[in-house]
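Practice problem: predict the structure.
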Amino acid sequence: MKYISVLKAIEKDERLIPLLAEEEEPVLCVHKNASKQKKLSFRALYDNNSQFWNNPTTSWNYLLPSDRVRELLSTIRENPGNYHFYASPSEEGTGGFGDDNDRPAAHKAKGLPNFGSHYEEIQSLRHGEKVQLIDRHTNSLKDLLAQEKPNPEAVSEALSTSTTDASLINKNILEKALEMSNDEARIFSHELVEKTREMVRTSTSLIDETVLQDEMFDAIFSSSNGTVVQHMTRTFLRSVAFLMFYNKKILNSSLPNRLRINFKKNYHPYYHRLLPHLHTDDVVLERVFHSGMQAIPNQQIHNFATGFLLHDIGKAKDIEYHEGNAAYDRDKVVDHVRQGYLAVVNKTSYPIESGLITGYHHEYYGHPSGYGYFRAQYSNYLKQHPKQHYNYLIGFGAKPVLTFQTAAFFPAKLLEIIDVFDALTDPNRVYKKPLSTDEALELMKSQFIEENLKLDPILMDLFIEYQKSA
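Answer:
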């Protein structure tokens, strides 16, 4: 295969830039002084450095397949009006091509890439001020909770702002904590943990009391600018709402009995694929959910909700959430799970359940496209216990997960669904057209369950029911 440098390709037509980003075109990166090479998407490289191909001091050569470049140039010439060059965040105000209204929303955000300009404001605060800010948000949420009929717009704004700030403050403080010993870090982060958990408890109660949840999410979505922190905010809020929906279905309906009656017809083939070592008659609902399908007590709800808030806390500044299989730096993406888990478990006194969510929320039932902190641990466990297998799929508590009795952790499997759904429907999804709710649900069923069994089929059907009831 013949290659052309990215520099020479762009010199042919600068309109290649948005097209290369939109297509998430893989770039072959070859080190000049070593035999190292890797593939990264143009999108990721561009968002990190809008002139990465034109840096004379770089140690890398950036290459594209010549045939692919000719194909893209042909596409531009056939549809010249569809492709416009846009400036990256670093070029704003410097006379870059195009005006601000032509740029995708995610490229309007200044400051730390993927976290927006507000992160700089958070960083500038003293440690005590950051913790006090979370406390002020909690008091505002409590005031709304005390009202008989709080204004839906006020509820949306308060939940969105408090979650965003708490996410960024936790990220900033935990980054500093990683440089300390475990004991020092736990002391350093102690007040942060207490204030964050109180905010999460209040947020959870407010979400549960909010009748017009669809209006709340519409309002929050309308302010999206495509940054990771807004994804984290929406994912936290929707995960809590879905968890509440699940609990009410367990407590107020005959859901477990209904699933048990229809299990063989509706779900058995899926779960036998995941538990092939069991006799077909042993693959029943109680094998899917360890100790049976159960309601979640309030304290566990709060622990799970804290994990939802912190799930992407280890995400680096130069990677984005995504639901596809396009080229990207997998090592860097995988590392956000490891960093998040280690930060939460070793450097704070957050409950172990919260840490497990950060470490398990991309496992995808062991599918090769998934990843997680515990895959290496399970691999080592099998070396010592080669005859052992998962005999259950989903655990509700930490113990069956940590002792490898189950393949997955309940809140993490719930979060996986929300995570994918949000990535597909984000109205400011820059590189692909956002999907409607129905389109996203259909794609998730076909690609994440039928074709590749990554999401949980029962929880997915409950999520569809939740969406229809919203």
